[in-house]
Amino acid sequence: MISVSEALDKILGSATTLEKTVVPIEDALSYTLINDIKADRPIPPFNRVAMDGFAINSSDFKNKTAVDLQIAGRIQTGVKSGLIIYPGQAAQIMTGAPCPEGADAVIKIEDATINGDMVHLVAKKAKPGLNIAPMGEDAEEGKVLIEAGSPLTTAGIAICASVGIHEVPVYRKPKIKIISTGTEIIPPSETPLPHQIRDCNSFTLRVMSQLQNIEATFLGIGEDDLSLLGSMIHDGLDADILILSGGVSMGEFDHVPKLLESNGVKNIFHRIKVKPGKPVWFGKTETTYVFGLPGNPVSVQTCFRIFVEPLIKKLSGSKSPRHKFLKLPLAEDSISKANREHYMPGKLVIKDGWSAIEPVLIRGSGDYSNFEKSHGLFIFPAEIDLMNRGEMVDFLPWREIW
After folding, report:
1. Residue 372: which domain range?
2. How far is CA 101 from CA 70, 86, 104, 121, 257, in A?
3. Is the pLDDT of residue 253 over 60?
4. What pTM value is reported for the model?
5. Residue 381 has what DSSP assignment?
């Protein structure tokens, strides 16, 4: 068996970034950028007023905390104005509008009293630049706002739109196909007999793919029938990633490894020194990467997070596809007798005013009812069986937070 680190080395080492494409900005969330996104003009593009109020020349407040000024006009956001403010004048102005020529400060509307065409303004410190964001304060023209190789976030989508990019050059996302295996598995819509269980793994895999902005295709439930399952595997090998759940252990009816190899999938590794997920199988053809995951629901969700997501990132053009872990203290003592690297479910709690990880106790890889309470996974090293309250652990949330 190989370690988790060795498995990830083999997975990522076998992967090549997919081809370039262009997607509409509204569909580009989590795609990886091919090019830098740069400011096409200064941000803000003019001296922008930061709040509703009156634009003034701060020299009118010299040695004063209150003045009466003539209202020279009103300036609305988004409307071009040629208004010039002279000493003794003020212009009523809206948030986001360009500060008019001659004005160098804005007194907020709460400190103004309007009387006809005059306004009484109160300010303890009316100095140049008050309540004005100067042109280029956030970014000069040409500044790199998002680097190539970065995944687009919601803020990144806003930045692209703000610099005039409505179609984004990115790397293609992989196409994923999914097969659930086992004669005992039936669809959720059916009533199970005492010896049957409903399929949940395909839904877990599809939803976790959707979190990567990928619509995965479910090919169905492959019973423990060599002909049927072999045909489904053949159909799945036109995807970039094929994922099977179940049928990869050492039992008499665990046919998946042999069927994959007979369909031309090269075995890269089988079995990892990890809990859960020991039986994981990984291989590839020239165009398709294939995972055979254990059938237990906890193993499926854990293994997708640990092994499949880094491959998705690598294929999608990420410069850093490996996981980033949070370092957090344990909220209480934790025990593991796995004798291999153990990815244990944990939830974020506040302990003594600080964030900490509280272990979520489950009864094994089939205990998805209690597993649901977890916020992610923390790593219990293979060489120890006890970790004490307060010890720092590597924590991997179920969803990326950076």
Report:
1. 326-397
2. 16, 9, 8, 20, 75
3. no
4. 0.89
5. -
